[in-house]
Backbone:
């Protein structure tokens, strides 16, 4: 496995692309491999380690190349603030469209190194968690839009994702506030300041940043999972996206597990910081995603050669 960290911008050391690349071997599949680009969550305040390398390693174990994007967030490498943090002014680095463009930059980096890294560039999926799932869903909505194509001066096809995997995503700001607990509202005021530059985004900002309302022909096939017990991002955020995927006839698969808190990541001991982050029923999402990906990302493994005289 070739593991390295690439700084995507000379002036932003916190924005990096980590690689988990299969090395060439005469005993293994030798063709270009599909890839999964992982986008951790963290409320646009930081990038969660729990939703980064542990997830990439699981996809690598399925036979895919994997990447982790640590995109622009409010605190960057400084991490999440101490409880009760009140000094919270806007930070332009973490505001839209910065994190979205970081995903575009990551896609272009993978494309530009596809031959060197043996990547099947036509089969690269984005996989996000929470805010990272929002960023991934936004990418699914805007990959062919001027916010990326004109900014980077590249054709839309250079940004096209083959699939999208959304884990307990935020997808519809227009219905979010009414369904939040008081504690969640406090966190989202911080997150809104990080992403929109204000605690209370305008209606136009909400619509621009609600990928569930932007589903259309450009939206890639999508896999979604959530828990009904999510105490931070309501499951209605997923069902809103699901309803619009169905209405627009975009291929999708969705799984809502009965129990489990927000931020389960792999939902097993590999990504857990405490026992509340382990739920073996919800952990089935990875095997379900593997089966779903197999329909689109199966390696073209050859038939076995017959032994002489057989």
Residues:
């Amino acid at each position: 496995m070739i593991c390295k960290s690439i700084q995507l911008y000379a002036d932003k050391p916190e924005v990096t692309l980590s690689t988990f690349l299969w090395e060439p071997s005469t005993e293994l599949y030798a063709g270009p491999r599909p890839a999964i680009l992982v986008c951790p969550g963290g409320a646009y305040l930081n990038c969660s380690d729990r939703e980064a390398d542990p997830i990439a390693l699981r996809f690598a174990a399925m036979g895919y190349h994997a990447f982790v994007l640590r995109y622009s967030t409010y605190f960057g490498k400084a991490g999440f603030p101490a409880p009760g943090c009140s000094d919270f002014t806007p930070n332009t680095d973490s505001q839209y469209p910065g994190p979205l463009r970081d995903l575009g930059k990551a896609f272009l980096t993978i494309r530009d190194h596809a031959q060197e890294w043996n990547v099947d560039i036509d089969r690269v999926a984005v996989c996000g968690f929470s805010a990272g799932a929002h960023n991934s869903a936004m990418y699914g909505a805007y990959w062919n839009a001027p916010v990326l194509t004109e900014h980077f001066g590249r054709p839309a096809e250079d940004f096209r994702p083959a699939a999208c995997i959304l884990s307990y995503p935020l997808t519809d700001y227009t219905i979010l506030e009414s369904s939040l607990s008081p504690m969640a509202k406090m966190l989202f005021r911080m997150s809104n300041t990080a992403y929109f530059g204000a605690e209370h985004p305008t209606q136009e900002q909400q619509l621009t940043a609600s990928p569930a309302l932007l589903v259309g022909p450009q939206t890639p096939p999508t896999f979604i999972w959530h828990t009904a017990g999510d105490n931070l991002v309501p499951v209605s955020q997923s069902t809103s996206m699901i309803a619009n995927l169905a209405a627009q006839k975009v291929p999708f698969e969705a799984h809502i597990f009965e129990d489990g808190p927000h931020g389960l990541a792999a939902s097993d001991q590999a990504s857990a910081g405490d026992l509340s982050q382990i739920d073996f029923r919800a952990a089935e999402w990875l095997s379900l995603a593997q089966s779903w990906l197999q329909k689109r990302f199966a390696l073209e493994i050859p038939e076995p050669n017959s032994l002489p005289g057989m």
User: Anything to note?
Assistant: The chain has one domain: 2-297.
